[in-house]
């Protein structure tokens, strides 16, 4: 029995299991604009800082990757939310519905999630003016598009800052087919390709952004990140880009990633100056 208890404890502290304080349905009380694929319910996993301070905390909506064919919840979702909570930031993981070529589905889920976070700001001790979005790979595409569009509620669903890890940005010639096909189908129009290329959508209202990518990423080449960074700078948006020499794709919060500690130190520094000090 003692060995079993010890094993469970080791699994918990090593991050093999993740438990959020609360799980809520994104569309629990309202009907989504796009009703396709309702059996695949969108959910939010809430991770709040353990200590409630005098000031309200920032929050980050986390969009894991998966090429719009799946959602990589562990190292691109729960683990990152736990790290954010340890830094005094509410980490809220979105398990979004898969589009299956119904392109608005994940974006409806993300916009509604932003509305839910701000609507529950008092309950979760969150500052509604410091709600950001983060995304990994295809989730980075979701986060970047969310950062550049306005829903029926305008700024209420717009993030205040953006954190991107090896994001898919462009659906033009630099991208591979899988992610784009899963979202837009096999033969998207030129208008759809343009509208869902995040670098083409940047405006003066795009929030401050930090981007992390590996130079030898062959799944989503680093040119996606540099294209978005350049678009941000052209529009006068505060932007930071870190390109690691190696690491390839999908490292997320995996501690064996060579630059794991460095990436989190850099992110913490950026959060301190861009989010906490504002």
Summarize this entry quickly.
The protein has helices spanning 2-13, 74-86, 105-119, 121-124, 138-146, 177-184, 190-195, 223-234, 260-276; strands at 22-25, 43-47, 57-63, 90-95, 126-136, 162-165, 209-214, 239-244. It is α/β, with parallel strands linked by helices and 278 residues long.
Structure characterization notes:
By secondary structure, this protein is α/β, with parallel strands linked by helices. The protein has one domain (20-276): 3-Layer(aba) Sandwich (Rossmann fold). The protein is built from 9 helices and 8 strands. Strands 1-2-4-3-5-6-7-8 form an 8-stranded mixed beta sheet, with helices on both faces. Strand 5, helix 5 (138-146) and strand 6 form a beta-alpha-beta unit. Helix 3 crosses helix 5 (138-146).
Order of helices and strands: HEEEHEHHEHEHHEHEH
Query: How many domain modules?
Result: 1
Structural class assignment = alpha/beta
- What is the β-strand count? 8
Strand content: 15-25%
- What is Rg? 18 Å
* Structural shape: globular
The description of the largest β-sheet is: 8 strands, mixed
Strand order of the largest sheet: 1-2-4-3-5-6-7-8
CA distance, first residue to last residue: 51 Å
CATH level-4 homologous superfamily? Alpha/Beta hydrolase fold, catalytic domain
State the helix count.
Answer: 9
Fraction of residues in helices? 25-40%
Assigned CATH architecture: 3-Layer(aba) Sandwich
CATH first level:
Alpha Beta
Low-confidence sequence ranges:
1-18
Average of pLDDT: 89
Query: What would the CATH topology be?
Result: Rossmann fold
